[in-house]
């Protein structure tokens, strides 16, 4: 049985993923009179705010000063936070509350491994803070996703080895990060590029302890984990 579950936040726990891209859309329109194509959302999903902005600037083929770069980051976050004003437990994605309850009943430790600096505030609004044993601080890791740092930090915060944990993500960058960390990578969604995911659930409502435990047993044997 795995001992820890490392959760991404946006698009896994709460229906907030699209709000990030809506904020970037407003920013691009306000400053560059540009519309961002839908496919760019996947490239900004799961990565840090700075990395997301760089993806957008590269797409627009524009450069900005360091001070302007920081100003754009601040304004994007303000737009995003404004969209979270009415966030509540009703925004928890289907099946997640039940899955978390199953994990807690079986003494699995939970950690948040999100690139979002707003993670603690969002968990508080969702009334899920008490369910999590640890929250990895993205500002304290050397590299963001797809590097494994945030998942390594989350496992360490639980006093567990990554191989004792499952990681749950909805982005390519996040799934790659989990895989490199040594934890079991579980994807949420239907993206055909989730190639390194050990198991994919089409939607959060499908998550359940029995299936995840069975997949972990296979993962453990294939990787010769104690």
Please characterize this protein's 3D structure:
This protein is an alpha/beta fold. Helices cover 45% and strands 10% of the residues. It has 9 helices and 6 strands, in the order βαααααβαβαβαββα. It has helices at residues 17-32, 40-44, 49-60, 66-83, 96-105, 119-125, 149-157, 172-181, 209-222; strands at residues 4-7, 109-112, 134-135, 165-169, 184-188, 199-201. It has a 6-stranded parallel beta sheet with strand order 3-2-1-4-5-6, with helices on both faces. Helix 1 (17-32) crosses helix 4 (66-83). The longest helix is centred in the N-terminal third of the chain and has 18 residues, at 66-83. It is globular and about 50 Å long. The N and C termini lie close together (11 Å).
Give a quick set of tags describing it.
226 residues; 10% strand; 6 strands; 6-stranded parallel beta sheet; alpha/beta; 9 helices; single chain
Any low-confidence stretches, pLDDT <50, length ≥5?
none
Structural class: alpha/beta
Number of helices: 9
**Got a strand count?**
6
User: What share of the residues lie within helices?
Assistant: 40-55%
Oligomeric assembly: single chain
Query: How far is it from the N-terminal to the C-terminal residue, by CA?
Result: 11 Å
Radius of gyration: 17 Å
The overall average pLDDT, rounded, is 92
Order of helices and strands: EHHHHHEHEHEHEEH
**Overall body shape:** globular
């Amino acid at each position: 049985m795995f001992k820890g579950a490392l959760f991404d936040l946006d698009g896994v726990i709460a229906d907030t993923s699209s709000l990030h891209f809506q904020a970037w859309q407003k920013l691009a329109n306000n400053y560059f009179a540009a519309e961002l194509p839908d496919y760019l959302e996947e490239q900004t999903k799961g990565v840090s705010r700075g990395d997301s902005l760089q993806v957008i600037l590269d797409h627009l083929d524009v450069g900005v000063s360091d001070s302007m770069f920081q100003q754009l980051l601040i304004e994007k976050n303000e737009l995003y936070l404004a969209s979270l004003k009415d966030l509540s437990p009703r925004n928890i994605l289907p099946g997640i509350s039940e899955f978390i309850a199953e994990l807690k009943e079986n003494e699995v430790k939970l950690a948040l491994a999100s690139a979002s600096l707003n993670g603690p505030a969002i968990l508080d609004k969702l009334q899920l803070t008490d369910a999590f044993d640890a929250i990895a601080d993205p500002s304290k890791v050397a590299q963001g996703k797809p590097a494994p740092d945030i998942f390594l930090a989350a496992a360490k915060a639980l006093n567990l080895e990554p191989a004792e944990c499952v990681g749950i993500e909805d982005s390519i960058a996040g799934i790659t990060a989990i895989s490199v960390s040594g934890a079991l990578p579980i994807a949420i969604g239907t993206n055909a590029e989730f190639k390194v995911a050990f198991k994919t659930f089409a939607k959060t409502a499908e998550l359940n302890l029995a299936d995840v435990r069975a997949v972990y047993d296979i993962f453990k044997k294939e990787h010769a984990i104690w």
